[in-house]
Amino acid sequence: MSSSAKTFRLAILISGRGSNMAALIDAAQSGQIAHCEVAVVITDQSSAAGLQKATECGIETLIVERSGRSRAEHDREIVAALRERQIDLVCLAGYMRILSRDFIDAYRGRILNIHPSLLPSFAGLDAQKQALAHGVKVAGCTVHFVDETLDGGPIVAQRVVSVLEDDTVETLSKRILEQEHELYPEAVATVLARVQATQAASL
Ligand code: GRF
């Protein structure tokens, strides 16, 4: 790829721990995700633990609390912040809010999410608990595009994790999370490479 390749600007949205955010930042800063810069980390929770890590990595952080506003108003502020920063791709990483239609429309095809199950099984909350309750023998994680359906948009990548006889929600979640940290950067790299290839072909 030529050195004049565009640098893609990522925004990561978090609500808590931010371990997937950290994996994405590390992958962008190390060059594992080529031509990519994490431009901002946005949260709806001022107490989100991931904020400190983002700051330590030299990344701008922005707290946009819901504070009594409607979902539409809250999302409008976030979309304005994304546009101001000329964000190309939005990565949800443990962001606990459902996006409004206007948000999805503004960045359609450019919003990714990671979910701790093999979608379309076990969408929604407590995916690992749902998997154990159903007695499945394989679980895993999925990166998908975000659309109006709950965890239902087109799938980009998946990883399988075996369920062990004595697994608890905690032990299974831990092994799935390890795979999430590898899968999300790989999926982002795949999506950006596809965009690069499409843009090169149209030149
Ligand atoms: C992850 O399990 C992710 O799949 C789900 O929320 C969790 C976030 O964890 N959407 P972290 O904040 O990235 O550590």
Task: Outline the structure in words.
With 203 residues, the protein is α/β, with parallel strands linked by helices. The chain has one domain (8-202): Rossmann fold (3-Layer(aba) Sandwich), CATH 3.40.50. It is 39% helix and 22% strand. The protein contains six helices and seven strands; from the N terminus they run E-H-E-H-E-H-E-H-E-H-E-E-H. Helix 1 packs parallel to helix 6 (169-201). The two termini are 14 Å apart. The model has no long low-confidence stretch (mean pLDDT 96). 5-O-phosphono-beta-D-ribofuranosylamine binds at residues 14, 16-21, 93-94, 114-116, 177, 180.
Task: Give a brief description.
The chain is an alpha/beta fold and 203 residues long. It is 39% helix and 22% strand.
Key descriptive features of the protein:
203 residues; alpha/beta; Rossmann fold; 39% helix; binds 5-O-phosphono-beta-D-ribofuranosylamine
CATH C-level category: Alpha Beta
Structural class: alpha/beta
Which ranges are low-confidence, i.e. pLDDT below 50, for 5 or more consecutive residues? none
Give the ordered list of helices and strands: EHEHEHEHEHEEH
Work out the radius of gyration.
17 Å
CATH H-level homologous superfamily name: Formyl transferase, N-terminal domain
Average pLDDT level: 96
SSE order and pairing:
Elements lengths: L7 E7 L4 H12 L5 E8 L6 H7 L3 E4 L7 H14 L4 E4 L8 H6 L4 E5 L11 H8 L3 E8 L9 E8 L6 H33 L2
Parallel strand pairs: 1-2, 1-4, 2-3, 4-5
Antiparallel strand pairs: 5-6, 6-7
Helix pairs in contact: 1-6
Bound molecules: 5-O-phosphono-beta-D-ribofuranosylamine.
